Amino acid sequence: MSVGTYYLPALPYAYNALEPSISAQIMELHHSKHHQTYVTNLNNALKSYSTASSSNDIPQQIALQQAIKFNGGGHINHSLFWENLTPASSPDAKTDSAPTLVAAIDKTWGSVDSFKATFNKALLGIQGSGWGWLVKDAQGLRIVTTKDQDPVVSGEVPIFGVDMWEHAYYLQYLNGKAAYVENIWNVINWKTAEKRYKGSAQDAFSVLKASL
Amino acid sequence: MSATLLRTSALRAGIRASAAKPMAGMASTSFVRGKATLPDLPYDYGALEPHISGQIMELHHAKHHQTYVNGVNAAIEAIGDAQAKGDAQAAAKQAPLLNFHGGGHINHSLFWENLAPNGKGGGGEPTGKLLTAINEDFGSFDNLKKQTNAALAGIQGSGWAWLVKDKTSGTLGLVTRMGQDPVSGNLEPLMGIDAWEHAYYLQYQNRKAEYFGAIWEVINWGNVAKRFEK
Ligand SMILES: [Fe+2]
Ligand SMILES: [Fe+2]
Is A12 domain-assigned? Predict the structure, then answer.
């Protein structure tokens, strides 16, 4: 059995394109170092898994699952994250770009502002490294938080995610994570969010297939 | 330190009591032993340079640790309010916050004390009974460092690695903890290394292995030995 190799996807904008909400230095380290490490370690784990699988080494296959989950999750989460951000000057950064989604948000939380307040509270409540996601499931829209790099892969459609690891904001915001959470709204890509909302989980994850 | 830690370990007894049976736990006096306070650092913010920058030390102590102190006090107050109203549910809701912020307070208080400026108590090698125990349980001091660094590198997300002593057998061991979970139960924490990104990011960014290498230059083995022999 041959194993696909995952590659670091190119960012759909320049490292400095999200300034001043997210600094170029953060974006460059986050993409070229952190995300790259998840990709490298995922490929290594998958290769070892393939070897273990072809030699029917079940204990080794089980031992590798956590590494696959963590690094695969890191790859999935960051790939989705880059695509659900956009420069603040882009029309995609306006909620007007997501009419259907905004209608659903209004229905669920009353208004976009009250949704944002709820989302922010969830993000700031994360204890340690993790992510916050707006997802769609059979019941409708939901806010979920996940720890470390646990990905949202139980059938929900990830609409957009916010990385709450300290590496995502520390060089610019230091311990002031509330300001990071406030400013991330300037660069959310509502056009991508609308597209994901209208599609399936498979569609959202298509960015990953492209890197196989 | 010991006064602060005594108070917080009393709090942790309170956490356990409240998790098991909230009403009974709240009736005890464990929650009203006074407020947690930020301990002074036993050295200047810049004293651990170049291994840990002064900027990191200042933010880490004055902001991060202070936030845990505030958090644990807020949780205690909320539990007190809930107790006054006989609202067990509201009290139980505070348990994760009490554990997180209380753990953060305990862990950082221990951490500051097991660091010291290089050449002034920090760095070098352990001696005496502690070294004998390290040689017995890890083979050598070098092995202990290697195994600790491997454990630190293996932490997936924010957490800590600890050199611990088993209270029954007296043997040394290595454990990792996620988030701010404190070392508890039958294990006595002797030396901890903070592997949260805030502990190194401003200086080392993603190169965390460099931070794990440098921290040995500022480990206060005298302090670790004192905890070991206690
Ligand atoms: Fe990240
Ligand atoms: Fe810390």
Answer: no
